[in-house]
Design a protein that fits this description.
This protein is of the alpha+beta class. It has 4 helices and 5 strands.
Length: 137
């Protein structure tokens, strides 16, 4: 007679909690190391923490404002390239602001003010690669 054993596998009832980074807007997934202080976790990395507390915070605020202004000046169906915000804030040195401008776009998406699109499809801002546009919801 065959003897049946009970499975010892545990079934997870739900996905682990997630939140958005306050500096770059990427999704932060829960880690066991953060179990005791998950409520205080605001940044996905040390680099984001340094940027939010340092001189990068002023540039980020100007990029956020530039993106909001550009979105307000366009029809709702049209999007804005984050590079346009980088050009508006950076002047001649706008190329070094391309990644911070994409982070500003992710922050707008995380705040629920906009959505990120590639072509005509809405994409996840944490995993989007290549050229993207930001448009109002």
């Amino acid at each position: 007679m065959a003897h049946r054993t009970r499975s010892t596998r545990t079934v997870r009832s739900a996905e682990p909690p997630a939140k958005d980074c306050a500096a770059c807007g990427r999704t932060i997934t829960w880690r066991r190391a953060w179990a005791r202080d998950w409520e205080q976790v605001r940044y996905c990395s040390d680099a984001c923490r340094r940027r939010a507390r340092g001189a990068g915070a002023a540039v980020d605020a100007r990029l956020d404002a530039a993106l909001r202004e550009l979105l307000a000046s366009r029809p709702a169906a049209h999007g804005v390239d984050p590079d346009e915000a980088a050009r508006a804030v950076g002047g001649e040195d706008w190329r070094e602001l391309v990644q911070p401008a994409r982070s500003a776009a992710r922050r707008l998406v995380a705040a629920g003010e906009a959505e990120l699109v590639q072509g005509a499809r809405v994409v996840d801002p944490s995993t989007a690669r290549g050229p993207v546009r930001v448009r109002r919801r």
